[in-house]
Specification:
Blueprint (H helix, E strand, L loop, with lengths): L11 H7 L2 H4 L9 H20 L5 H20 L6 H5 L3 H14 L1 H10 L13 E6 L10 E5 L4 E3 L21 H13 L5 H21 L8 H17 L3 H25 L3 H7 L3 H22 L7
Antiparallel strand pairs: 1-2, 2-3
Length: about 325
Amino acid sequence: MPELACSASRSAAWHLTCSTPAFLLDYFNPRIAFPRQTNRLTARFRAVHALCESGGAPDDLLALRDALAFHLVKMSCWWDFAFCPRAATGVRNPDFLGYVKAHAARSPEDEAFFDLLTWQAHTRPGDRDQVLVLGHDSESPQDAPLYFGLDAGREFRFSLPSDKIGAVHLEWARPGYRDFAGAWLAGRTCHAREMLDSEDLRQRLLSEREHSWARLWHQRHFCRPGDAMAVKAYVEACAQASSCRTTFGRMEFAHIAGRLAHEITAASRRTGMSVEALFTEAGAPELAETAAPMVHLQAATYASECLDEQCDG
């Protein structure tokens, strides 16, 4: 897990302006780096929670804390990653869930999403024909919008092309997808299929395939491997990255490799061992000398692009 420590110099007023979910997140654009959004959200929650724990927090700061907690849960569903509040934020799970529930009670839209993830009191439990409309792709044509939804099986769906305008007439594609990006990629391909030439279609389908590889890594975003496992995972991720042929796939794997490189350099600082020595100890001595410079470069790039420059002590 990335080390994200928010500077104590950030005031409550600053966070109320710069740490709102609307400021930090863009749910409907998976081109924005998943780890950047998730890491920033985690860092801001920790910082706001610390301010609230210091005593005398105003109601709007408490509400922001609750909203950030809710959106961490929502992001874990959106990107299908394993999330344990205590491990990721240091807050006890029951307390964290209390914040999430408090936010849901204030927001009917977010309460509907949370209910679909949990008790499903407002729908027929498990009924995949019950779909909560989440929004639409802003880049899709106004006369043929691409909508996205979450069904009662907790899978993301996209609307099929239709000559009928408006969400009331939506027909949802089957099957569903475990993460939003999978539905986004497939939905855009489906809606544009008639306008794509064979090479464009091939690239779209390759993006879906490469994302299916990346999704398995996203699921482990908050799982911190041991030092040797970080090296082995890095080598595996780089091998998959070299197989990517699309812009989207290469972007995803650049961040995956960068996160693991960041873990390796953190292990190097923590243990006092060089990156070369870590590779050798992990059973990859043949890569040690050539990989070390790239690991340092990727770790630095990841830190600059995906960690929180405003809240990284």
